[in-house]
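During the no-cost extension, the postdoctoral fellow (Dr. R.K.) reprocessed legacy sequence entries with the updated structure-token encoder. One reprocessed record is reproduced below for audit purposes.
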Amino acid sequence: MLKFWKMNGAGNDFLILNNLEERLSPEVFPRIARTLCERRLSIGADGLMVVEEADQGGDFKMRFFNSDGSVGEMCGNGARCICRYGYENGLAGKTQTVETTAGKVFGQRMDKRLYRIRLNDPTVIRLDCPVEADGVTYACSYVELGSPGLPHAVVPYPGLRDAPEGELRELGRKLRWHSAFPKGANVNFYELTGEDRIFERTFERGVEDFTYACGTGTGSVAAVLALQGKIGGRLRADMTGGTLEVETEQAQGRVEALYLTGPTNVVCKGTITDEDLTV
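Re-encoded structure tokens follow.
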């Protein structure tokens, strides 16, 4: 039987398997993700993270799979959670280096539940990238973090807190698959709610619905707003599952670094007995 942890970071929830111990073949992970992440038929989660041996000088490697079984380049809240997992399982110290598909992520333990990471650096930022859906043109920016880049559409949306759920979901789905984004995109709707503060909702690629939080999405929004001069060096983002904070570092009109800080929660630990899963 497989051992697992379930964790969440600001409501973005994940299952973690330690393949240093399980020794599973890589081709089984998409099926494991699809089976175990199904909320009504199994444990349920936004994604699956697999710990593997580092091969580029990091403490360990993180493989990320969305709930539909597709491979994710990286996940910000997932990386924060897996940093805590690594610390509490003796894989790394209070500061650590995690290898991801999109490049190395650097993590830091702030206290028992609060973790900070340096997100993959922005590799693409297009501030003016309007998109059309159903005859309406929406202001949009496009950001990729890391290489290969994790794609994000950043869309201002006045009245976001009160937006009808069904209408917003349908718009999120259309923009997620928009032809302007060849790789698809995570769609980050945001509304400025105060000085250096936003409310945000994200329609996530691979989950194909809204999640309670999105760390890389919040970093992407922060990068856009910082370059537009709408925030200072620090952004607080309120989401359905909690609040995240992003610090931006700029030099010569470019975003050089993004640091994501937020809570983690160890929900449960156990063994998987799902009879629909055979590995």
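The first helix runs from residue 19 to 22. The chain has a mean pLDDT of 97. The remaining legacy entries will be reprocessed before the final report is submitted.
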